Amino acid sequence: MPELLQPYGQAFAANPYPTYARLREQNPIFHSEEFGLTFFTRYRDIVNLLSDKRLGRTMSHVMGPEEKTERHRQEDWQATPAYSRFVRVNLLESEGADHARLRRLLAKAVDARRIGGLSQRIEMLVDELLEGVVDCKEIDFLAEIAVPLPVYVISEMLGWPAEERHRLRPWSADIVRLYEKDHSEEDVVRAEAATEEFAGMLGELAELRRSDPRDDLISAFALLESDGEILNKDELIASCMMLLNAGHEALVNSAGNGLLALLRHPEQGRRLQRDRSMMKTATEEMLRYDSPLQFFHRFVLEDMSYGDFEFRQGDKVGLLYGSGNRDPAAFERPDSFDIGRDPNRHLAFGLGPHFCLGAPLARLELGILFNKLLRRFPGVQLVDEHPEYRTGLVFRGLKQLSVRW
Ligand code: HEM
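That is the input. Now the predicted structure with protoporphyrin IX containing FE docked in place:
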């Protein structure tokens, strides 16, 4: 039987939503040999599974020591020692007691007090970025605004040196490439090299901050690590890497996808210009309508059934958040972009134990960015109505987004 989902072509990248609609209608749950998992496309099923304790992002917490050693002996762990040490065991890839402990720690790092205190700084950064392009006739919104903003914000929070900021984006891009199923051997080599360099620099920085702490997260984590019991050295590096990457990767794409949606629906843009109090619901709608992260998997931790489907321990399920966000059973007129949509219980930030820790920061950055952009450049418009998206199933984002005013 041909694969029902073939996500790595340009047509799917341009618009995956008709495929998702057809699948929700005709094959809402289906097994894929190629991906080695069972896909779920409907909102209700995705919500149920994300809330189900019989599923997890990893199996390691239910494995015995021998199974773990065996897994680490496997070829794909051996081929990428740095990636396996720091990326495969970060907060997002942990479960159970380790996840709870790391999440408590990281939650303090991005809690409401810290985020609230960042507002003014983000406003300043947005002002500076917009001021920098005021005399340009045309810009790539991604390169000039959407990339630098979250990279600056998360670097400052962590205390990552300004002169090394330019490294973060390429490292992150190389590392997350392995999340996509169509990655090549060369991608594996690049991801490993990026992780090695990134981890090396973080290790050095943590040493420096331990002896000379500042008011930043790397210092805070380094002091916790000195304590020994709460955080070990690998976790310190993995956590900082995770925050630096997660802190900008999806934000870049949500700003790009969001602006594109707004400019392709000029009546919604005018509505927002008339009533800025709609900014909150508008940003949620941007996140739902064209989510920057569209797919995540879970492992089945114990034999279980779901509806008519039987799963064995170790099976994998694939949850298409991007499809759930367009499910007519959950959202009225799901293919309409409606900046006033409320309630809007979208899945762009996930759900359950791994719900995005950075959601308050992401919402703050997006709100400030769009508010200031529309005020400063009320006549902003697309240069090209159909900019190209990158191919991918997990990440959804544009190659570039040319705009003028
Ligand atoms: C619009 C921007 C963002 C989007 C759409 C987004 C989306 C997500 C999603 C969908 C997940 C869950 C993955 C899963 O279900 O397996 C997640 C997890 C996470 N996100 Fe975000 N994210 C964004 C911004 C941020 C920012 C700014 C930060 C950091 C400051 C961040 C930090 C994290 C962390 C640490 C996790 C892992 C949580 C855990 O495993 O317990 N994210 N994010």
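The beta strands are 29-32, 37-40, 55-56, 138-140, 295-300, 304-306, 309-311, 316-320, 381-382, 402-404.
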